[in-house]
Amino acid sequence: MAGPTRRPLMAGNWKMNLNHLEANLLVQKLAASLTEKQLTDVEVVVLPPYTDLRTVQTAVEGDKLLIGYGAQDLSPHASGAYTGDISGPLLAKLGCTYVVVGHSERRIHHHESDAICNAKVKAALTHGLTPILCVGEGLDVREAGRHVSHCAVQLEGALSGLTAEQVVKIVVAYEPVWAIGTGKTATPEDAQEVCGSVRERLVELYDQDTAAQVRILYGGSVKASNVAATMAQPDVDGGLVGGASLDAEEFAQICRFPEHIAR
Ligand SMILES: O=C(CO)COP(=O)(O)O
Quick check: pTM over 0.95? Predict the structure, then answer.
């Protein structure tokens, strides 16, 4: 559970799902399922495909919904001849506040390196977007017991050259690849082990105060039935939710997790 200065963040990564009509419906249903207090206690964000962003903006701004939104990727470049890419300024103009960087699906399918993630994190910050930087290991790395060092290398690569003032603005998401879309959730202890090690690494790279401000999410088969136990861990400040965020009621239940954690 988040410390006093870290507001929990629950972000729904829709991946390549839901057209703009479905997006509008889901955002309206989600907002209607949560009270103002719940939306204040937990920051709720949706990360739709690019093609839905204008519709989500219209819904959020038109009805003053307390829901944030962002994109699943951005170009490291601000503009120019990059066919098919979408830049930070284009996203910021649509009211996006978050952008995912380095999701394992992009690292795998688009061969994104830590250096590319670093350029994308910098581009996001330059254009006023909060990057949600994903790190996580595959099954082979986990079975070899190298998951902590693997995530540390990804973290350091993506943060290279960033100042403490910049790092406090980013969100890190630990997503073990073997737990994504498989129904295999990491145990709360597994999530804490890596999220805690990420924070320790931030202390080493920066300082205690900086590390204490960075929100660290867990992602991988998060559901209403398992969210509370994971969020109760001291270094887990929220979730990056895939499949379960496509159902408004299930995602709303996930966002209500603080009610199931004894404080
Ligand atoms: O990749 C994820 C979120 O970015 C996790 O996806 P699932 O919740 O579907 O496992």
Answer: yes
